């Protein structure tokens, strides 16, 4: 994997695209590429060598940028690994900024299809939340790839649950009894319900008060009520296909 070398001074002269959360800053490298540079304090918290190896492994898998943000190059600052280069999403906005019900059903249908591709490449997202899903030209894309798990390299923040994931009934039991791919799907399903109904309340309340069909509500309720053997893929794609047809 190619490397880009900077001094600290050179990097900080670049324009900031956004603050990138607590983990780092996002700089504009050129019209098409961004640089994510990690905060120095993370070196005392996270294993930077494993993070570097994960980025190399993700780069080698060569997954399309319309599925997840593909790391292009490593960034070296003053001789030390500090981040990576990725595609610039000029029109990107988080999925929760979209209010149109029909569009959200369509986007999440595509997300579940893309999640299958991610999982087929032996990648675990773990930190599945609306803030990590960006929509660019009607394509929903998973971002924050450096925190994901790849092959034998574990995802960051083990045990961490986003506020939406915590709304899933008996989530700790579900995590205990199901593999990480099923939990990724479950978290994405929770994101979907909270995207289509952003009112306050439990997952069940938001689901039942949504504009989804009765069949969809009934089948999704069964998923949320089960603690073992989730097997979400068994019918989720058919449900979304049917829902999209109904609302056209």
Tell me what the structure shows.
The protein has eight helices and eleven strands. The longest helix has 20 residues. The chain is globular. β2 and β3 form a beta hairpin. The chain has a six-stranded mixed sheet with strand order 1-5-6-4-3-2. The protein has a three-stranded antiparallel sheet with strand order 7-9-10. Strands 8-11 form a two-stranded antiparallel ribbon. With 248 residues, the protein is α+β, with helices and mostly antiparallel strands. The model has no long low-confidence stretch (mean pLDDT 93).
Produce a short descriptive summary.
This protein is about 40% helix and about 20% strand.
Features:
alpha+beta; six-stranded mixed sheet; 8 helices; 39% helix; 248 residues
What is this structure's SSE topology?
Elements: E1 3-6, H1 8-12, E2 16-18, E3 24-28, E4 33-38, H2 48-61, E5 73-77, E6 80-87, E7 93-94, H3 101-120, E8 123-124, E9 133-136, E10 139-142, E11 149-150, H4 171-177, H5 180-196, H6 203-208, H7 214-225, H8 233-247
Radius of gyration: 19 Å
Q: Element order, helices and strands?
A: EHEEEHEEEHEEEEHHHHH
Biggest sheet layout: 6 strands, mixed
Helix content range of the residues, please?
25-40%
- Uncertain ranges: none
Strand order of the largest sheet: 1-5-6-4-3-2
* Cα distance spanning the termini: 44 Å
Average of the residue pLDDT scores: 93
Helices, by number, come to 8
